[in-house]
Amino acid sequence: MSPTRKPVEQLDVLVVGAGISGIGAGRHLKTGHPAKSFAVLEERGAPGGTWDLFRYPGIRSDSDLHTFGYEFKPWRDRQAIADAPRILAYLRETVAENGLDAHIRYHHRVVALSWSGEEARWLAEVERTDTGERLRLSARWVFCASGYYRYDRGHTPHFEGREDFRGTVVHPQHWPEDLEHAGKRVVVIGSGATAVTLVPALAATAAHVTMLQRTPTYVMPVPREDAAAAALRRWFGEERGYALTRRKNILRQRAVWSFARRFPGAARRLIRWVNTRQLPEGYPVDEHFNPPYDPWDQRLCAAPDGDLFKAIRRGTAEVVTDRIARFTERGVLLESGRELEADIVVTATGLSVQALGGIALTVDGEPVRLADTVAYKGMMLSGVPNLVMAIGYTNSSWTLKIGLLCEHFCRLLSHLDAHGYDAACPEVGDPGMPTRPFLDFAAGYIRRAVDQLPRQGDRMPWLTSMSYHSDVRLLRSDDVTDPELRLFRAARAGGAKSPARPAAGPRER
């Protein structure tokens, strides 16, 4: 007699990931749709996502927490550019305060999602990462809050002779808890936000730290604490003071980005002037802090209270701009002929991008290739019904956009309920619409994965906005319906079946 298969659990919404986006989505569902059933599946054993995963020294945000935090929960800590333990405590408070513990299921990894137009439901194939058990869940909607980083491994290029090195090589994404760097010589390969964070943190106790970069990055000192935020809290109280600080910082972020994009030459000169004032007299600023690209072609790196520059002034850290020829027994040999001796080499060489957490998608039996889809309002995919992806901003705080996406998603659910629809599917009205990468950003980790990501169009609602103020209109103020968003009922109830794809895909540009 064959074993009885367990009945498939039925949910209204399946949220993938219990990081900052998934926790926010859970809170919005609890308050906006308290009658709907939902579960948050988290592959790891704790909430917090990035802030629980990464354990390297000094890990912190590079956005202020008044905008990186949730709109519904004031950030009360004195640190505006906050370290990971404080952010993690804030996220866990959010989970507890909103009763999300009962909804989060740890050690659950979504392997595949299959859409049935007849049922107007997703069937999720799930693996228990602690036991290996496989199970299935059925959900009306899927909210994918896994971001776009691959959490099981970072990006490390091939280095000739790496096996000859007698010291320790470590990637920040997999920092060993027992790695002792005090009194050691450390070389950090990279020049992005991770390297800029690591170098001053390591330099506090290491014998010497070298940041080895192939290409410079724009780095700006920013206050770790926001004096204006503290004053606004005193004058207006926690809630109102937080709201005013958030508004102030949103405007500041937008002003800085707009100035840099409109006047790149002036922005470059201003950043260089600030860097010169932070560095020792006669320091070769143009060699080490003058990138070949314009400001905000890639994300600017923040140095809280100028910590990187302070370490350079103290002589506990240095920046070397050169290319690696090979690893040696004692360290790293550069193309210039210089050898950097090291006990520890940190490969802060970037992250690996993986859209939708690497989940395999099928729609009515047809596999979905993400690169063939176009993003609708930056949150759904053409030809893919009832699936939301949570991708935040690259030019300001991630969570600003996530909050708006969650609001819009809840409004869309309300609209479908009010009019008796089961599903919504974006469809490109003009097959000839030109497209470009969804994340039109010059960062290396994006360029390496551009052919694996969705596209964006050249007009709304297919244009991926990176402007909070534009998205407030689009996602918060405008109607949730659109001529290119098809609403329908399940075929089993007599409605029209959802298409697996638009009739013809838009052309690439």
From TrEMBL:
EC nos: 1.14.13.-
A Pfam family it matches: NAD_binding_8
MF annotations from Gene Ontology: oxidoreductase activity
Enzyme class: oxidoreductase
Cofactor needs: FAD
Coiled coil: none
Keywords carried by this UniProt record: FAD, Flavoprotein, Monooxygenase, Oxidoreductase
PANTHER family listed in its UniProt record: MONOOXYGENASE, PUTATIVE (AFU_ORTHOLOGUE AFUA_8G02570)-RELATED
Record-stated family: Belongs to the FAD-binding monooxygenase family.
Name recorded for this polypeptide: NAD(P)/FAD-dependent oxidoreductase
Organism per entry: Streptomyces chilikensis
